[in-house]
Design a protein that fits this description.
single chain, 111 residues, mainly alpha, Rna Polymerase Sigma Factor, Chain: A, 7% strand
Length: 111
C-alpha cells in the first residue's frame, strides 16, 4: 500500500488515480470531522467536496508533504472556520425582504 505522501507526489505529477485513492481514503474521516465542527451533514458534505475540489484544481501548487493527512485536516479546519464566520451573514441576507428578478429571488436593496 502506497503512503499518503507517495500518492500526493504522484497526483502532483498527473496521476489522477492517486487522487482517487486519497479521496477514498479520507472523504469519510473529513466528513465526520466536518459534521462535528459544523453541526450539519449537508455542510460537511459540501466541505468534503470543496476541499477535494480545491486540492484537485491546485495540484501543481502542492509541495512535497511529509504529513498529507495533517495538511488535509488543516485545510478542512480552515474551511470550516470560514464557513462558521459566514453563517451570521448568510442568516442576515436570507432574512432580508426579497424581490424576484428574472425568475431569481434576491435580497431587496435598502438604499
Amino acid at each position: 500500500m502506497r503512503s499518503d505522501e507517495e500518492l500526493a507526489d504522484a497526483f502532483r505529477s498527473g496521476d489522477d488515480g492517486a487522487f482517487s485513492i486519497l479521496y477514498e481514503r479520507y472523504r469519510r474521516p473529513l466528513y465526520v470531522f466536518g459534521v462535528r465542527m459544523l453541526g450539519s451533514a449537508e455542510a460537511a458534505g459540501d466541505l468534503v467536496q470543496e476541499t477535494f475540489l480545491g486540492i484537485y484544481e491546485r495540484r501543481q501548487e502542492l509541495q512535497s508533504l511529509r504529513n498529507f493527512r495533517g495538511w488535509l485536516f488543516t485545510v478542512g479546519r480552515n474551511r470550516c472556520l470560514t464557513l462558521l464566520r459566514l453563517v451570521p451573514i448568510y442568516i442576515y441576507v436570507c432574512s432580508m425582504p426579497q424581490i424576484e428578478v428574472d425568475g431569481t429571488r434576491i435580497p431587496e436593496s435598502r438604499n
